[in-house]
């Protein structure tokens, strides 16, 4: 019995020894693998302690590096678009506006149909004089003026307290330089400039604050021709005429307006108040963001990045109603016209019956309604609210029955089988409309093509970029029908649109229209001072123009300006140009 217990005791000891031996072997095995190295898992598990050890070992260099890294990240964020737009407008006194379009040039010497460019120009520059909706001259850089009895000599006095955003004083030499350079760019380089209508005007500096314009003949529209932004001679004086369109001034200009550009990117422009403008603007910074289409604009609006947006058509405003803190305002533009210009240089469109028939097949009200365009149909080149508009003329309207008869006179008969107009060789009546490719134009012309197709005419669409349209189409006049938007003067003068001498680029008689009686009426209309006689001239002008129908008058566009209710002081009355929304921008304020 005792033997058995002893044997058991011996076995027990042996098993303990066996386990202890096993542990010793495992320890030896660990040491063989290198017990002085910490497993990777344990290193990352203990990374806080390890980082602290590393910082202590490398101090003070590591501390300096970490502070610099944090500082750089903070600086980058503060300079980023996200911060600039996401911050509260009330907190940092910023106004962020979104528009659809693209940037071309901010140099105001060149004629410009780009609404984005003109918006920036209005914020950055000041005009020599301003013209209101009633054709009155208002002070700009020139604060007073005298006009000779014969209307041929204008003498302007300027204020000497205007200062450029770089701190230099604005002088009478800047005024002369602006007009003189714009004229030279037109005459010597063929550029379309704001002074193309002033080439025969003699300009003379009288003294340090007086400049005089002597006209070769009376010109009722001269005040509007002189209503241009003034640019600094000390910045552009050494830039050659050839390089003027490409100089850095086109993106980073120096102006005397309420704001200055401190940063410009392809799709965003940052502006801050000019410390030299008096009175100082209440809103310290304005950021203009540009989007390629309304969908992108809407997306940015919904995320709360924008305090205001400009919308071109009715359908685009639907999403705005979801936001109670925003209000919508209609901006009517009575002196902007969208038209279809027939190219009378092409044999097809020399037939006045063809032009008349096409006019009578376009239902303008239905066109605007179906395309969702916000605007007013027009039937004359002169605004219906202008004193020179003639209400006694039988303006063309939608009349498909009469159009069939008129088109027969042009050699086109409607095929009752297929529903299309055909000539004597069974060729379908078709033409191509060339236009600037943007969302509104596309929507409008797709609707027009569909409506005319139902009437029996096939329309092809040719959308082009802005550079293609200006350089390849307007410069060469190579088109069949061109849809183009024209901004006319408040004065009813129509010389640049219809006079035969204005047919070639860069003038605006895009149709190539010629009629000597029209030429005489336009010449007399702009040189006559008596308004009653002028009205008689323009009544005859409108009658002759409607008889010839070199264009299809489509509509005058309106825009919707959506802005936060907290933005106060905006003047929405008596608009002449779209950029007039900023005419009192220095009075805008953000209500906390």
Write the layout of secondary structure elements.
Blueprint: H1 2-33, H2 40-45, H3 47-58, H4 61-79, H5 81-86, H6 89-92, E1 94-100, H7 115-124, E2 129-131, E3 137-139, E4 142-147, E5 153-158, H8 172-189, E6 202-207, E7 210-214, H9 222-225, H10 233-236, E8 259-265, E9 268-273, E10 285-291, H11 294-302, E11 308-311, E12 326-332, E13 336-342, H12 352-360, H13 364-371, E14 375-377, H14 400-409, E15 413-414, E16 421-422, E17 430-436, H15 439-455, E18 458-464, H16 466-474, E19 481-487, H17 495-498, H18 516-527, H19 531-548, E20 551-564, E21 567-568, E22 589-590
Parallel strand pairs: 1-10, 1-11, 17-18, 17-19
Antiparallel strand pairs: 2-3, 4-5, 5-7, 6-7, 8-9, 9-10, 11-20, 12-20, 13-19, 13-20, 14-20, 15-16, 21-22
